[in-house]
Automatic annotation (TrEMBL), chain A:
This is RAB, member of RAS oncogene family-like 2. Pfam families: Ras. The keyword Transmembrane does not apply. GO terms for molecular function: GTP binding; GTPase activity. Residues 204-224 are annotated as: Disordered. It comes from the Eukaryota. One of its GO terms (cellular component) is cilium. Coiled coil: none annotated. Keywords: GTP-binding, Nucleotide-binding. InterPro entries: P-loop_NTPase, RabL2, Small_GTP-bd, Small_GTPase.
Automatic annotation (TrEMBL), chain B:
This is Centrosomal protein of 19 kDa. Keywords: Cell projection, Cilium, Cilium biogenesis/degradation, Cytoplasm, Cytoskeleton. Belongs to the CEP19 family. Residues 147-157 have a biased composition (Acidic residues). It comes from Paramormyrops kingsleyae.
Length: 224, 157
């Protein structure tokens, strides 16, 4: 858990309290396209995320300052494996932006973007989404090619490499900005209702101070 | 006795890997046909290649042929079984859905990918490491279309 990092620079509970903004960004795409490697490259070594293995989910908490405001970001790094399909609704729940990754070496991961995107739009019709062509280090020629999917959907396309680091930091910074502006400009009514309900739930079950418990419970509720 | 591999290729029916080699003792060029058994369109090319490479009968001939090359040849055979045309940009396992694999198999695939990943990796301790490495690529008008977009049968959107 984030709090157990032992002398970490930042106390996250305090940060949650003080933060001006909090956004959730989800990372989607097929198995082995490099979602986790991208997260790790952005946050660099030594960062220890919260791992919810039963849910095939890794939660990275990150804090940054944008225009003088503290922004807390929850990155949800999900698993591509099909047997976690039933988890997807909770991935999408209340997300403010989406990073959708494919592997430039494997066509099927590009073709499957259609499915990921369709599902994303079922749950989050409006949130900003960035399409990411990862592993360009393996074949730089792909950067001269147009991948029509992004264009057709009117989505930005980033050519990146988790291995050599090309455009990784830019990708995540831009994603955070998009998430922020989505949050500020959308008055997502459903979100507010859900938040109300959630507060209500939390009031009822006092004593569960363990963050991971809360998250798990939250997810159970979403699945129910 | 020693054999110097010169070229290799495939035969489709029955599926076999063909090796042209020089017998160093006699200086003669020879051809060896190695049938690929128990191989279907669902087979794991990497494993099949390993099996062949280590087989008692054939391994002495295959010393000069890398397992990667054998894997590629198996992929050609498999693509043929799948009815895919030859000369796809690269005969790689790019059409296999890794989302369906079990944990162990997936870990195995990732381990294979790690080889290239580690080779191309820039680490923090490298002298030329740049955390926020930005590279601009040509604007989309200048880009060529991608062959992956050619079979646009799924007009779901
Ligand atoms: N060459 C190269 N290989 C990469 C790159 N990013 C990831 N890989 C390789 O791809 C493998 C899979 O990456 P992961 O980050 O585990 O993939 P993932 O999308 O998180 O996969 P799941 O969590 O199973 O859905 C890694 O083990 C690396 O070997 C990259 O930028 N370049
Ligand atoms: Mg992962």
């Amino acid at each position: 858990m984030a709090g157990d990092d032992g002398g970490s620079l930042f106390d996250f509970d305090q940060a949650t309290y003080d933060a001006d903004e909090k956004v959730k960004i989800i990372c989607l795409g097929d198995s082995a396209v490099g979602k986790s490697k991208l997260m790790e490259r952005f946050l660099m070594d030594g960062y220890r995320p919260q791992q919810l293995s039963t849910y095939a989910l890794t939660l990275y908490k990150y804090s940054t300052t944008i225009d003088g405001k503290t922004v807390l970001v929850d990155f949800w790094d999900t698993a591509g494996q099909e047997r976690f399909q039933s988890m997807h609704p909770s991935y999408y729940h209340k997300a403010h932006a989406c990073i959708m990754v494919f592997d430039v070496q494997r066509k099927i991961t590009y073709k499957n973007l259609t499915n990921w995107y369709r599902e994303l739009r079922e749950y989050r019709p409006e949130i900003p989404c960035i399409v990411v062509a990862n592993k360009i280090d393996a074949d730089m020629k792909v950067t001269q090619r147009n991948f029509n999917f992004a264009k057709k959907q009117g989505l930005p396309l980033y050519y990146v490499s988790a291995a050599d680091g090309t455009n990784v930091v830019k990708l995540f910074k831009d994603a955070i900005k998009l998430a922020m502006s989505y949050k500020q400009n959308s008055s997502d009514f459903m979100d507010e209702v859900l938040q109300e309900l959630e507060n209500f739930e939390l009031e009822k079950k006092e004593g569960t101070s363990d963050k991971e418990d809360d998250l798990l419970q939250e997810m159970d509720q979403q699945l129910a | 006795m020693s054999y110097v591999a010169k070229r290799c290729g495939v035969k489709f029916s029955p599926p076999a890997i063909v090796l042209i080699y020089e017998d160093a003792d006699t200086g003669k060029m020879r051809q060896r046909i190695m049938p690929v058994r128990n191989f279907s369109k669902f087979s794991d090319c990497s494993r099949a290649a390993e099996r062949l490479k280590n087989s008692l009968r054939h391994s002495p001939y295959l010393e000069g042929v890398s397992q990667e090359q054998l894997e590629r040849l198996h992929t050609v055979l498999r693509d043929h079984l799948l009815g895919r045309p030859l000369l796809t940009p690269r005969p790689d396992p790019g059409d296999e859905d890794l989302n369906k694999l079990e944990d162990e198999e997936l870990a195995c695939r990732k381990a294979q990918m790690d080889e290239l990943f580690e080779r191309n990796r820039r680490r923090e301790e490298d002298p030329d490491f740049v955390y926020d490495l930005e590279v601009e690529f040509p604007e989309s008008d200048a880009r060529e279309p991608c062959s992956w977009d050619e079979d646009e049968s799924d007009d779901a959107f």
